[in-house]
Amino acid sequence: MYYIKDAKIRRMMEYDGAPCAEVGVLPGAINDPALLVYIVEDQREEGYEIVRILTNDADTSTDWFDNNMHDAFKDVTSSAFTGSLIMTPDDERSKFQRELMTYGDLKKQLGERFRRLE
């Protein structure tokens, strides 16, 4: 399971023609990678749904200029949640999404950002 140390909206963008929030997520565990999580509005999933997840394996000591023009970013949307003895991959994904949406005031900030686009 992925533990969240910090999560912040980096920017608003489009994903498949729909407004989307790019959220930077820092891990709470030492060996976990930083994530870029892409979230769209969705009426089925508490108002929001994760549509894409990228890992960022760049070493900040050598790649201090946060960019996506190299191979440090890897799409792990379909492989990020592998399941365990007590949880299916879908359960892990749902748990991560719930924890992300309840982290600080992220859900409130998402609402404000999406409303500004209307």
Describe it.
- The protein has about 120 residues and is an alpha+beta fold.
- Helix content is about 20%, strand content about 35%.
- It has 2 helices and 5 strands, in the order βββββαα.
- Strands 1-2-3-4-5 form a 5-stranded antiparallel β-sheet, with helices on one face.
- β2 and β3 form a beta hairpin.
- It is globular and about 40 Å long.
- It starts with a strand and ends with a helix.
Outline the fold blueprint.
Elements: E1 4-15, E2 18-27, E3 34-42, E4 47-56, E5 73-75, H1 89-101, H2 106-116
Arithmetic mean pLDDT: 84
Q: Could you estimate the helical fraction of the residues in percent?
A: 10-25%
Give the helix tally.
2
Termini separation: 35 Å
Overall form: globular
Structural classification: alpha+beta
Main sheet record: 5 strands, antiparallel
- Provide the spatial order of strands within the biggest beta sheet: 1-2-3-4-5
Per DSSP, what share of the residues sits in E-state strands of 2 or more residues? 35-45%
What integer value in Å does the Rg equal? 14 Å
- Write down the secondary-structure element order: EEEEEHH
Number of strands: 5
User: Poorly predicted ranges (pLDDT <50, ≥5 residues)?
Assistant: none
